[in-house]
Design a protein that fits this description.
45% strand; two-stranded antiparallel ribbon; 12-stranded antiparallel β-barrel
Length: 362
Amino acid sequence: MISRHNQHKVRLATVWALFVFALTAIPSQAELLGPLRVHDMTPFNLLRLDMLPAQEVTSGPGSWAVEVEISHANTFVMSENVGAYLEQRDRRGPLRTEDVEAIESLGEDAYFVDGEVSALELTVHRGITRRSSVYLTLPLYDFTGGFLDGTVEGFHSTFGFGSQGRDLVARDRFQTVARFGRGNAAYLDPPVTSGWGDPVVGVRHSWPVGESHWNLIVDGAAKIAVSGERPFLSTGSHDFGLQASLQRKHRRQGIYLSASVVRTEGEALGVPLGSDLVPTVTAAYEVGLTRHTSAILQLYASEGAVRETSIEEIKANKYQASLGLRTRRGPLVYGFAVTENVANFQNTADIGMSLTLAWLSQ
């Protein structure tokens, strides 16, 4: 039986093979669109401010750009002690009140998150000067049991990856249980099925780096908790972030490097985040496949927002890889990307997908 670690190696090898295959048909010139703006969908980081890699989408004073990003992630993560409890319970079915009580009585930190999350993010950009812009993002979240559990289990079974514990709980249910220190939170059904999250406002400015093809882009953003803490929709805190990016576009290839830090606190999925600075780095490579279509391979690394716990799995850094395709036709940009976790599999969404549609003023 193939372990979950080896399962992810197979997936990553497939991603790399597809990307290398795409390189064989690259044109001499292409319209490059910048890094993927993929939201971090990991369960305990979902509601904090996420500094997405910068794109220069406005074209001067008075110009506009509108982005719609739809992300969907299937998550099945748990601590080792919860996994041992489920194996001892040894039956398929949803967690019930007695299971929550048993997990809470373990006398140690524990967590379990099973479900699917969708996020629709609407972002409006406005050009202020030739190199400066401001933006506003409004997120809409949806929490469900989803529809991918059977597909994921079938994939595991077909390729001998094992169930990874999915056969010990019900399919297509959204359930979370967490015990950290003296705090307990359990949602056998999400308290809300959907709702608006906190708005994000930001400002961006770019500078050319000498005579090179490189640009330096600096972002500052704030997530505003307009209605205080709301379960599954808002941490209840104002978050603030800074990001610096180096980007190089030349003919048919682009290289994009970003580093950011976010100050966050409050609660996510009932889990206290404390007050902490969360660093994140991303690296992306874009290559033109045709004059108007490009492929992007992007790597992401970040600290987890939950730090005050004895569980190493949830404190571990998050590492993810994304592969996407994007096309621009006139003012419209549309694309698709798949995100896969590549290490520390018990604190990160198993697999995610995102769709992008953008309108750029000419």
